[in-house]
Design goal:
The chain contains two helices and no strands. With about 55 residues, it is mostly helical.
């Protein structure tokens, strides 16, 4: 969640200064954060289903 928040903050800064490389960096950070959250969600669901199935 921290990566997504930091990405949005950098993205706002990047939108204020269109010539800076902050916008692509911010988009990369947001994407990384979202992938990490999806991975954590899938892992939590998999562990939960393993515990109930046994």
């Amino acid at each position: 969640m921290l990566f997504v928040a930091a990405g949005f903050m950098l993205g706002i800064h990047g939108l204020e200064h269109p010539g800076s490389p902050m916008l692509p960096t911010a988009l990369g950070i947001i994407a990384t954060g979202l992938v990490a959250q999806v991975f954590a969600l899938v892992k939590a669901c998999f562990v939960s289903s393993q515990g109930k199935g046994g």
